[in-house]
Amino acid sequence: MKKLPLGLKTMLFPEGKQLSYTVSKKIVLARSIVRKPKMLILKDPLDQFDDAEADRIMEFLTDKSNGWSLVVVSQNPAWITKCSRVVTLDQGKLIEDK
Fold first, then answer.
1. Which domain of life is it from (predicted)?
2. I need a labelling partner for 79 at 20 to 30 A (CA). Which of 1, 29, 45, 62 fits?
3. How far out from the chain centre does Cα 76 lie?
4. Are residues 24 and 48 in the same domain?
5. What is the largest CA-CA distance in the chain?
6. Does residue 13 share a domain with residue 31?
7. pLDDT at 22
8. DSSP the chain
9. The domain containing residue 88 runs over which residues?
10. In terms of domains, do 46 and 76 share one?
11. Tens-digit pLDDT profile for residues 36-93
C-alpha cells in the first residue's frame, strides 16, 4: 500500500487490470477496516496470498482488540483455529456449529 502513489485511493479496475489480484485485495481489505467497522463480512479474504502474508493478515483481522465482529466465508482450514465459532454448511444446510 505504501508503494502505491495514491494509497487507499488507488483506482481499482474490473478484472484487476493494472494491479495484481493480491494488491487489489489488500486495497479492498484496507478500505473495509479503515473506519473501524463494528462488523466485517469477508469471503475468501486471503485466497492467493502466500502463507506468511496470509497468516499476518489473519492475525490482524482476528485480533480482539480491533473491536469488530468478523464473519468469514472460506474453505481455508486455517480460519478454524482463529475463530471462536465455526459454522459448517453443505449446500446451504447446517452440518456443524461449534
1. Bacteria
2. 1
3. 12
4. no
5. 46
6. yes
7. 86
8. -TTSTTGGG----GGGTTS-HHHHHHHHHHHHHTT--SEEEEESTTTTS-HHHHHHHHHHHH-GGG--EEEEE---GGGGGT-S--EEEETTEEEEE-
9. 36-98
10. yes
11. 999 999 999 999 999 999 999 999 999 999 999 999 999 999 999 999 999 999 999 9
Strand partners of residue 93: 90
The total number of structural domains that make up the chain: 2
Contacts of 98 (CB under 8 A, 6+ apart): 85, 86
Amino acid identity of residue 84, one-letter, is S
C-alpha cell at 15: 478484472
Same domain, 27 and 55: no
Strands 87-90 and 69-73: unpaired
Q: What is the pTM of this model?
A: 0.76
pLDDT at 88: 93
From residue 27, alpha-carbon distances to 5, 20, 33, 91 in Å are 13, 11, 10, 31
